[in-house]
Design goal:
heterodimer, A: 322 residues, globular, B: 761 residues
Chain lengths: 322, 761
C-alpha cells in the first residue's frame, strides 16, 4: 500500500513538473538581410570601410567567414565638396572567435579604402547601394583631445573588515570636444607580447616595435552629454601580469624595474560611442539569461553598424615602479 | 462660477423641498446575513430604482403616498413590500435563496438589464460561484484565471495567473482586497493567485470608465471583497486536493450582531516530493494563505469590519553533508489589514472610513557553512480613506471622498555575514511617498433613456522635493435605444505614481516596485471607449461590443543590457517611452438554463515606442495579442451531475530573440572579430499560439446537514505543448559530427488530471 501510494504521488509529481521541450524554427521571414558597416575614420590616415552582411541563424555556422564580407560594391565617400569611389581591398588576416573549433580561427578581411587621408574636424558621408537599396551614413571628425595628466596610483577598497588595494592609472583630461562626443582611453605597452595585436586602421602606429598590447579600452567609453568643459577622470586597471618590465638605474647605481605604459585618449563621435557601448553590453550579457537584450546601435540609414570617427591625443607615457 | 453653482445646487436640492420620502437600509442574504452587493431595489410603478453599494446599503427617495418595493438579486427570490410613504423609513431586506429548477431563468429582469441600463462601461461583476464551477488545474479554483477568460483581459501565458487589460502592463492593474492594495497577487511565481475563492464574496473588474473613487493605475481595477461571515449560524467548507487543501469556517459571534470568517489554504508540493529526495537533501516549495474577517453591527447606523490576509511562499533547497551545509531559501508574501467603519448620517448619506495596512516583501537567503547572504526588498503602505455615498434623489448617486496613502519603498538591501568578518549591512535607500486624492462622482439619470456617469479625481503625490498633481476627468454617457439595448461612450484619464518595472525576459516575484521621482514621471493614460449592449430572448442572452483606444505616456522599461536582479537604485537602469493600444471586445453570454456560459473574443493591438529601445522604432508590447478567444460552458445534467469546460485560444506572445548573426570587430578594433546577435526587432518573434481545453465533472451529494462533492478535472485535455519560453543554444550533432545552433521551446504544463473532494456544512 505504501509503495502504491508513493508510486501514485511520484507519478503525479512527475506529471505536474514534467516540462516538455521541443526544437522550433525561428521563422525565416523574421530575418531581413542587411549590410553591416564598420568604419572609424581617423585623422591623417586613409579611410577604411568594412561592409559585411548579417546571416540568418539557420546555417550561419556553416557559412565561410569570407562570405560575410560584401564584395563588388562601389561605396561613395564624400567630404561635401568632393566624392571618391572607395577601392576594394583584401588580404589582411584577423582572428575571430570560432564556434566550430571552440576557440580562435582566422580569416582574411575585405574592405574598401580611399586614397585621401582623413582631415581633422571634417564632415564625411558614405553612400552605397546593395541589392537595389541605398544606404547612407555620415560623421564629423571630432576635435583632438589632450591629456592633462596620467599617473599610477593605488586605491584601497574595503567591505566590512576586509580591504584590498588595486593599482590604477588615472587619466585626467578636459572635455573640450564638441557636444555629442565620447571618450575612451587606450593603454598600451610597446613590445608587449601578452596580447600581440596591432591596429590596422592607423598604420603609423606600426613603427618601431610594431607590437602593441591594447588591453584596455571598452570599459572607459564615456558619453559626453553633460560634461562640457569639465575635467574628467578615467581610471584604468592595468593587468597584473604579463607586462614587460624595464630596468632603470638609481643615482646610487642600484637598479630598479618599472613598467612603462603609453596612454592614448580618443575622442569619438557620439554614434560611435553608443555603438561601442552596445557592443560591450551585448558581450557582457551574452550568457546572462536575466539580462535585457541589447541591440547594436547604428547610424547607417537602412542598414546596421557604424560609420564613425575619432581623434587621438598625443601618447602620454606613464611609468610604474615595481 | 457662482452662476454655475447656484443652478447646480437647485438641481440637487429642489427635489428635497417637495414632499419626498426616503427609504434606506441594507439588503442581505436571509440565511447567512451576508450583505448583497448590487441588489436592485426598485419601484416598478414609478419606473425608478437603485442598487446597493459595496456594503449592501441602498437609499431611494420617492415622491408618492405609497409604493410597492421590489428587491431582486440573482439566485434569490424577489421580495415585494407595500409601503405607505408618510415618513422616511429604514427598511432592511433579507432575500432567500432560490431553489432553482434547471430550466428556469435565474436572472431577474431588472438585474438582467443592468448591463444595458447602467451608465457604466467595461465593468464586470464576477460571480465567484461561477468561477468555482470551472475546471482548473489540480482542483485549484483560481479567481485570476477566471478573470483571464473575460474579453479584453489577456493571460500572461503558460502557467500564469497574470493578466493584462486592454494593452496595459501587469503593473497597471490595481488589485484591492477589502480595499487594501495587493502588490503581488501570485503564488508559485504567477501560476496561482493568492485569492482563496472560499473566502471571497464579491469581485468587480473595471477595464475602463473607472468610477472616480478608484485611481492610481492605468489599465484596470480589480475590487475584491471578502466574505463577512454568517450572522445566523455556524458553517464550514473546504476541499482536499492532491496538491493543496483548504478550509473556511464562519459563523456568528453574537447572533445578528457579530460574525467571523476564517479561511486557510496550504499547498504541499514539498511534502509530496520529500519521500523521493536522497538523505541529507531538502528541496521544496509551499505556500499558505490565511484570511480572517470580523463583522460587528454596533447599531443600526454603525458597523465595523476588521479583515486581514496573510500569505507566504517558500522555495528552498538544503544540502547537508557531514562537513558542511548549504542552503538557499526564497520567500515572499503579502500582509493586508483593513478596519472599516460604516456610518449612516441619515437615510441619504452613507459613509465608510477605512484604515488599511498593506505589506509585500521578499527575501532571499543563501548560506554555505557559516557564511550567509540575505537579500531583502519590500513595499509597505499605510492608508486612510473616507468615502461618502449621497443619494439626494433617484436621479443621482453621488460619491465623494478622500484617500491618503503613505508608501514606504525598501529597495534591495543586502546583509552579508561570513566567518571571518562582521555582519555587513548594505541598506538600500528607503523612500517615503505620500499619495492622496480627492474625488467626486455622480451617476445621473438625465432622462429615462439618457444617463451620465461623471467624475473628477484630483490626485496629489509628494516624494521628497518632487510633487505631482493633476485632474482626472471620468465620463460615461449612456443612451437607451430600447428596452434591451443601449449605446455607451466613455472617456477616462488615469495617473499612476508607483510602478513595477518588470524584466522583458522573465517574470519573477522579485520585480521591483519603484515610486515616481524627478526622473521617473507618473504614467498617464487617456482611454476612450464606445460600446453597444443588447440582450436577447427575454434577457437570456447578453451581448456587447466595445471598442477602445488607449494612449499611454511615461511608460517605463529597463534599458537594453540592464540586469534588474537586486539592484539598489534602479533609476539609472530605466528608460521611458509611450504606448498605445486599441481593439474591439465581443461578448455573448447565456445566463440561464441547463447550459450557461459565454464566448469572449478580443481583437487588439498594443504598441510601445521608446527612444532608447529598439533603435527608437515602435514595437509590439510583449503581451500584444492579436486574437484572444475564450469559450466557457457549464452544463447541469441534474442536481447531482454537472459538466464544465473552457477553451482558450490566444495569439502567441512576443519575444526578443536573435534572428541572425553579425560578424563585427570586437570593441571597434579591426584586428579581432567576433559574432554578435542580430535582432530583427524588440519583441520581433511571436511565440506559437496558445490554446487549451479544460474539462471538469462535478458530482454533488446533498445531505440534510452537509454537502460534499467530487470534482474531476482535466487541465489541458489534449496535451497541447504551449510555449513557456524559448532559448537558443549550441548542440553537438553526432551524425554530422558538428555543432548545431538550435532554438528550443519549453512547455511547462502537459495534460494534468486531478481529483478533489470538497465539502460544506
Amino acid at each position: 500500500m505504501k509503495i502504491t501510494f508513493r508510486l501514485f504521488l511520484g507519478t503525479f509529481a512527475l506529471l505536474l513538473l514534467g516540462s516538455c521541450e521541443q526544437a522550433i524554427r525561428i521563422d525565416k521571414h523574421d530575418f531581413q538581410s542587411k549590410p553591416m558597416v564598420w568604419a572609424l575614420l581617423t585623422p591623417d590616415s586613409l579611410p577604411r570601410v568594412f561592409i559585411s552582411q548579417n546571416l540568418p541563424l539557420e546555417g550561419w555556422l556553416e557559412t565561410d567567414i569570407r562570405n560575410q564580407f560584401i564584395e563588388g560594391l562601389s561605396p561613395q565617400f564624400s567630404d561635401g565638396s568632393s566624392t571618391e569611389t572607395l577601392t576594394e581591398k583584401s588580404g589582411q588576416e584577423v582572428e575571430y572567435q570560432s564556434f566550430w573549433q571552440g576557440g580562435k580561427d582566422s580569416a582574411d578581411l575585405v574592405w574598401y579604402e580611399g586614397s585621401q587621408t582623413v582631415k581633422n574636424n571634417q564632415f564625411y558621408q558614405l553612400r552605397f547601394e546593395w541589392e537595389e537599396k541605398e544606404y547612407f551614413a555620415q560623421t564629423t571628425i571630432p576635435t583632438s583631445p589632450e591629456i592633462v595628466s596620467a599617473e599610477a596610483m593605488n586605491i584601497v577598497y574595503s567591505i566590512g573588515n576586509s580591504s584590498w588595494t588595486e593599482e590604477i592609472i588615472r587619466v585626467v583630461f578636459t572635455d573640450n570636444a564638441a557636444e555629442n562626443s565620447t571618450y575612451r582611453v587606450r593603454l598600451t605597452q610597446r613590445g608587449m607580447t601578452y596580447f600581440p595585436v596591432f591596429d590596422p586602421v592607423t598604420s603609423e602606429y606600426l613603427g618601431e616595435d610594431s607590437l602593441y598590447g591594447v588591453f584596455h579600452s571598452y570599459s572607459s567609453v564615456i558619453l559626453d552629454e553633460r560634461l562640457q568643459g569639465k575635467e574628467i577622470n578615467i581610471d584604468i586597471y592595468p593587468p597584473s601580469h604579463g607586462m614587460r618590465l624595464k630596468q632603470g638605474t638609481n643615482p646610487d647605481g642600484s637598479t630598479f624595474y618599472y613598467r612603462e605604459y603609453e596612454v592614448i585618449l580618443e575622442t569619438l563621435d557620439m554614434a560611435t560611442g553608443k555603438y561601442l557601448l552596445s557592443l560591450d553590453e551585448q558581450s557582457a550579457n551574452r550568457y546572462d539569461p536575466l539580462a535585457e537584450p541589447v541591440f547594436l546601435k547604428s547610424n547607417v540609414e537602412n542598414g546596421q553598424g557604424i560609420f564613425g570617427s575619432r581623434s587621438l591625443s598625443q601618447p602620454y607615457i606613464v611609468r610604474v615602479i615595481n | 462660477m457662482k452662476n454655475l453653482l447656484f443652478p447646480l445646487f437647485l438641481f440637487l436640492i429642489l427635489p428635497e423641498l417637495s414632499a419626498q420620502k426616503t427609504l434606506s437600509g441594507y439588503v442581505r442574504d436571509a440565511q447567512s446575513g451576508e450583505i448583497l452587493v448590487g441588489a436592485i431595489v426598485a419601484v416598478p410603478q414609478l419606473k425608478t430604482g437603485t442598487y446597493t453599494n459595496n456594503y449592501g446599503f441602498y437609499s431611494l427617495t420617492l415622491k408618492a403616498d405609497s409604493a410597492i418595493i421590489r428587491v431582486d438579486y440573482p439566485g434569490y427570490n424577489s421580495q415585494f413590500l407595500t409601503l405607505i410613504l408618510d415618513q422616511n423609513q429604514s427598511i432592511h431586506f433579507s432575500l432567500t435563496e432560490k431553489e432553482i429548477s434547471l430550466d428556469e431563468v435565474v436572472i431577474t429582469e431588472q438585474k438582467a438589464r443592468e448591463n444595458v441600463e447602467k451608465a457604466t462601461m467595461g465593468a464586470i461583476d464576477i460571480n465567484v460561484s461561477e468561477i468555482e464551477m470551472l475546471p482548473f488545474i489540480a482542483g485549484e479554483k483560481d479567481l485570476l484565471k477566471g478573470i483571464q477568460l473575460l474579453p479584453g483581459v489577456q493571460s500572461g501565458g503558460e502557467a500564469s495567473a497574470g493578466y493584462y487589460v486592454r494593452g496595459g502592463g501587469a503593473d497597471q492593474n490595481l488589485i484591492l482586497m477589502d480595499e487594501a492594495i495587493v502588490y503581488n497577487p501570485f503564488h508559485m511565481a504567477g501560476y496561482l493567485s493568492i485569492f482563496n475563492t472560499d473566502a471571497i464574496r464579491n469581485v468587480t473588474l473595471y477595464k475602463g470608465s473607472y468610477p472616480a473613487n478608484f485611481g492610481g493605475r492605468l489599465s484596470s481595477i480589480l475590487d475584491i471583497g471578502m466574505k463577512e461571515g454568517n450572522m445566523k449560524e455556524f458553517h464550514g467548507e473546504g476541499g482536499i486536493g492532491l496538491i493543496s487543501s483548504k478550509i473556511t469556517l464562519e459563523g456568528p459571534i453574537a447572533k445578528d450582531r457579530a460574525s467571523f470568517m476564517v479561511s486557510a489554504r496550504r499547498f504541499y508540493w514539498d511534502l509530496l516530493i520529500r519521500p523521493f529526495l536522497p538523505p541529507g537533501q531538502k528541496l521544496g516549495y509551499n505556500f499558505h494563505d490565511f484570511n480572517a474577517k470580523i463583522n460587528y453591527k454596533i447599531s443600526d447606523k454603525d458597523r465595523l469590519f476588521i479583515s486581514g490576509y496573510y500569505g507566504r511562499d517558500n522555495l528552498y533547497t538544503e544540502s547537508k553533508t557531514p562537513s558542511d551545509t548549504s542552503l538557499t531559501r526564497m520567500d515572499w508574501g503579502n500582509i493586508t489589514f483593513t478596519a472599516r467603519w460604516n456610518h449612516l448620517f441619515g437615510p441619504k448619506l452613507f459613509s465608510n472610513t477605512s484604515f488599511i495596512y498593506s505589506n509585500y516583501d521578499y527575501k532571499v537567503i543563501q548560506a554555505y557553512g557559516r557564511d550567509a547572504t540575505v537579500l531583502f526588498s519590500g513595499i509597505k503602505d499605510v492608508n486612510g480613506k473616507i468615502d461618502f455615498d449621497y443619494y439626494p434623489n433617484p436621479r443621482h448617486r453621488i460619491k465623494f471622498g478622500l484617500n491618503y496613502i503613505y508608501h514606504t519603498f525598501t529597495p534591495s538591501s543586502t546583509r552579508i555575514q561570513t566567518a571571518q568578518t562582521d555582519t555587513l549591512q548594505v541598506q538600500g535607500r528607503s523612500r517615503f511617498v505620500h499619495e492622496s486624492a480627492a474625488y467626486i462622482n455622480d451617476e445621473i439619470a438625465i432622462t429615462d433613456r439618457f444617463g451620465i456617469n461623471a467624475g473628477l479625481r484630483a490626485p496629489l503625490y509628494v516624494s521628497g522635493q518632487t510633487t505631482y498633481y493633476g485632474l482626472e476627468p471620468r465620463l460615461t454617457l449612456k443612451y437607451t435605444l430600447g428596452p434591451n439595448q443601449s449605446i455607451k461612450a466613455g472617456y477616462t484619464l488615469m495617473n499612476q505614481y508607483v510602478h513595477l518595472v518588470s524584466s522583458s525576459v522573465i517574470s519573477l516575484p522579485f520585480d521591483i516596485w519603484t515610486p515616481s521621482s524627478e526622473v521617473v514621471k507618473p504614467q498617464v493614460a487617456h482611454q476612450g471607449a464606445l460600446g453597444y449592449f443588447r440582450n436577447f430572448l427575454n434577457d437570456r442572452y447578453e451581448t456587447s461590443v466595445e471598442l477602445y483606444y488607449k494612449r499611454m505616456s511615461n511608460q517605463i522599461d529597463y534599458r537594453e543590457g540592464a540586469n534588474f536582479f537586486f539592484r539598489d537604485d534602479i533609476e539609472p537602469e530605466l528608460v521611458f517611452g509611450k504606448g498605445w493600444a486599441y481593439g474591439g471586445e465581443f461578448y455573448i453570454r447565456k445566463r440561464s438554463g441547463r447550459l450557461t456560459g459565454w464566448i469572449g473574443y478580443t481583437l487588439s493591438w498594443s504598441w510601445r515606442q521608446f527612444d532608447d529601445l529598439n533603435l527608437g522604432r515602435p514595437y509590439p508590447a510583449k503581451y500584444d495579442r492579436r486574437h484572444d478567444l475564450s469559450v466557457v460552458a457549464v452544463y447541469k445534467f441534474n442536481e447531482k451531475w454537472s459538466f464544465s469546460s473552457t477553451f482558450v485560444y490566444g495569439s502567441g506572445h512576443w519575444l526578443t530573440v536573435p534572428s541572425g548573426r553579425l560578424f563585427v570587430p570586437v570593441n571597434g578594433w579591426t584586428n579581432s572579430f567576433s559574432w554578435y546577435d542580430d535582432f530583427s526587432g524588440r519583441n520581433g518573434y511571436r511565440l506559437q499560439s496558445y490554446h487549451r481545453l479544460d474539462l471538469g465533472l462535478r458530482y454533488v451529494v446533498k445531505k440534510p446537514k452537509y454537502t460534499y462533492a467530487w470534482h474531476i478535472d482535466i487541465y489541458n485535455s489534449y496535451n497541447r505543448r504551449n510555449p513557456f519560453f524559448v532559448y537558443q543554444d549550441f548542440v553537438f550533432d553526432s551524425r554530422a559530427n558538428a555543432r548545431q545552433f538550435v532554438t528550443r521551446q519549453v512547455s511547462l504544463l502537459p495534460m494534468i488530471p486531478s481529483l478533489t473532494w470538497v465539502f460544506n456544512f
